Records
---
Amino acid sequence: MKALAIDIGAGTADFLLYQEGQAIENSIKLVLPSPPRYYAEQLRSATSKGLDVIISGYTIGGGPLMSKIKTHILRGFKVYMTPTAAYSIRNNLDQVRKIGVTIIDETEKFTGEPIFLDEIQLDKYDKFLRGFGETVKDVDFVALSVKDHGAPEEEISNREFRIRKYREFLSKNPSIDTFLFSTNDVPDYFIRMNSGISSVKSFLPNTPVYVMDTSSSAVRGCLEDENVKDHDNVLAVNVGNGHTMAAIIRNNQILGFFEHHTGGLTGKKLEDLIIGLAEGNITHKEVFEDGGHGAVILEDMPGFSNIDKIAVTGPRRGILKGSSIEYVQATPGGDVMMTGTIGIMFSVLEKYY
């Protein structure tokens, strides 16, 4: 079994090429800047040159693009975007138009600097690896982890929509692996996930593709750490560059979780939320009104004193430095930056193979 896992976050794109039977520490691993940052720089360059831009391609994480697009339009230049590319900015195309973007059909012809969005770019990985006698062409499956808030049909906050859907998934199946989807199982409202699959399929048309949200894959990856395995009540925390998720997991079943924006947290606030989650007195309203996504409590919480192991991972885990909470730093495969890739890869192996 040979597998490729890619985890695209707000700061980095993390790449793992795994070969069954080989120590995972010896796998090919890459940590690269998150692709949306590169496209934001392309747009900034077009602004400095005074050029209109035509943005096409796939739906990607659009956080870094938003401010650059607004600046471009304020400077008096045009921004044309195809619908799929435009979903990178907002999950509602009317909201994209209100920013000043012109939505165009794929076949329409306009003059401007072309920017093609693709955050997967398997051709680039393969070209690089072939220089070392390796390829991604022969993998048995691709596991892709991206942040996707979902596109609600009704007028509702995407933060509220995200938590509502998570609650629905968990009410049917509380396993952490319930957040993993195969190609044909991804709901239509997860536009970025579906677009990512299309990108992979453009390079590997016959290879199975699986997708998972970045928050879920990192929490899942904590369970593969040698210091965390075989414990009953685990509180796993991923402090990512953009989002922080904490979940209590027993026998691979989620009892409850919360998700917040890392930028809105301090070490003390995160500590209080973690304890509140374990005690069962955290509320969705509390987290949502603080600017986070929210919280879901499915069962009676075990109580903080009954947590067997607290595992913290993520590039901004240092926020908890000096905390009174005793925890282990989860580094599955010996690398904290591979937590998400390892999480989704082993989720695929557990659920489908």
Note: The mean pLDDT is 94.
---
Amino acid sequence: MVTPAALRIVFFGTPAFAVPTLRALLASRHPVIGVVTQPDRPRGRGQQLQPGPVKILAAGHGLPVLQPLKMRDEGFLDALRAWQPDLGVVAAYGRILTDALLAVPRLGTINVHASLLPRWRGAAPVHRAVMAGDRESGVTIMRVVRELDAGPMLDVATRPIADDETSAEVEPALASLGAARLVSVVDRLAEGPIPEQPQPAEGVTYAERVTRADSPIDWSRPAKALHDQVRGLHPWPLATTALGGQRLIVVRSAAAPEGPEAAPGTVVEAAGDRLVIAAGSGALRLLEVKPEGRRVMTAREFLAGHPIRVGARLE
């Protein structure tokens, strides 16, 4: 049996989610001829320019890297054409690819997207799935088209989301799952065209980018919804409330569907390791919190240094 020719891959990616896919390609028989990643960003207290995770990995393997400020820049497009890629692979690059760019790879460009499309197209599919209380998610390998995350699907893999899992736990699991499925798809494309399934017209939702505006807790909502908010916003930007005029970050929680009759936001238990707050329905137990300017504390640690009376209100 003749082994199909390897495909020359140009990889587009930026954050940690993209790293397993790039690693999997580097370990495959298909050469990664170059990497496109976003420009270095200021990070840390000193706000020094720092490379992203994909650039660090690419540099460690001696790969050429392009970091265009604009997708339409002709110098960037000329450099990309000079690589003569057979296939483009995208994993959380973070920019919309232009028609001119999509025309460069001979076999087009495919994307590793962390949702079960057409649900959660867009920038923050994992966070939005967890915040919505979805019981499962997955990865879709799709062909990149002009419309956001709307291309036909080449492969899909599902994964359950446990009741207490956070985005910080779900995302790396999906990254690993997507990496393995992506290499399988590339192997099949090397043999010739493969079936592409159009996305269903029904069930489309959009995963807007998560910002600090998502953080404030509205205690009138059900406890389960608040628990999902806490999980979905972990590790950033985290869910927040206020106690006595001071900002309090809720790092981990647990939801009780039934709770004592009390106004939403009322402290109904505050002793030992139990800090329980009434919600619109049920109650939310705060397991780990972070007072403004302090470290993360368990409920027991927090209550030891911050006595709270039952009946106090969080806002």
Note: The mean pLDDT is 95.
